[in-house]
Amino acid sequence: MTYLYFDSSALVKRYAREIGTEFVERICQKENITIAISDVTIAELGATFARKLRERNMTENEYKLMLDIFLDDYSNRYFKVAINFKVLLLAIRLAKKNSLRAYDAIQLACAINVRETITFNESKSDIFFVVADDALEKAANAEGFKTINPNTYKE
Predict the structure, then answer these.
(1) What are phi and psi of 143, to 5 degrees?
(2) DSSP-derived secondary structure for 23-44
(3) Domain range summary for the chain, segments of one domain joined by +
(4) Mean pLDDT throughout 20-39?
(5) Is pTM, for the whole model, over 0.70?
(6) What's the CA gap between 81 and 99, in Å, rounded?
(7) Which residues lie across from 36 on neighbouring strands?
(8) In terms of Cα–Cα distance, which of 60, 54, 55, 70 is closest to 16?
(9) How far apart are CA 41 and CA 64, in angstroms?
């Protein structure tokens, strides 16, 4: 089994046309993968869609459709990582160590939580951190993740 932990910067490409959208669509369709996301992703993607609407990069109807599709996928398709006290304490350490913003630190802490869980339960599983943010990608690499950046990845 392969786990793809998606940061919001990469997952948004599944719903909004951006650089890397085609790549994200392809990897999400592969067999034997589990897509993991943090619970914070719901707020981050909702805010991103609202920003795109405000900046007139989408219509009100497109906003509603995109949000509805994402919320359905959130409920039915993704392995969701809860944010608990342990994750938040780890996020504090990661923010300091890697100069991360709060949500980025939480995303990385959640990915570490997934990695620890699958390492314990499924020793033959791989996990990749899918991210389209250079600073967060660098921090994920520093924490030992194999990363995939849909903006630059070459298959």
Answers:
(1) -90, 10
(2) HHHHHHTSTTEEEEEETTHHHH
(3) 2-148
(4) 95
(5) yes
(6) 22
(7) 5, 79
(8) 70
(9) 17
Per-residue pLDDT tens digits for 59-95:
999 999 999 999 999 999 999 999 999 999 999 999 9
Among residues 69, 82, 60, the alpha carbon closest in space to that of 28 is found at: 69
Of 53, 43, 45, 39, the residue nearest 10 (C-alpha): 45
Place of tokens 């990897």: 27
Nearest 10 degrees: Cα torsion 113, 153, 138, 4: 0
CATH class of this structure's domain 2-148: alpha beta
CB neighbours of 79 closer than 8 A, spacing ≥ 6? 3, 34, 35, 36, 37, 114
What was the pLDDT predicted at 124? 62
Structure-token pair, residue 7: 């940061």
pLDDT band at 42 (very low <50, low <70, confident <90, very high): very high
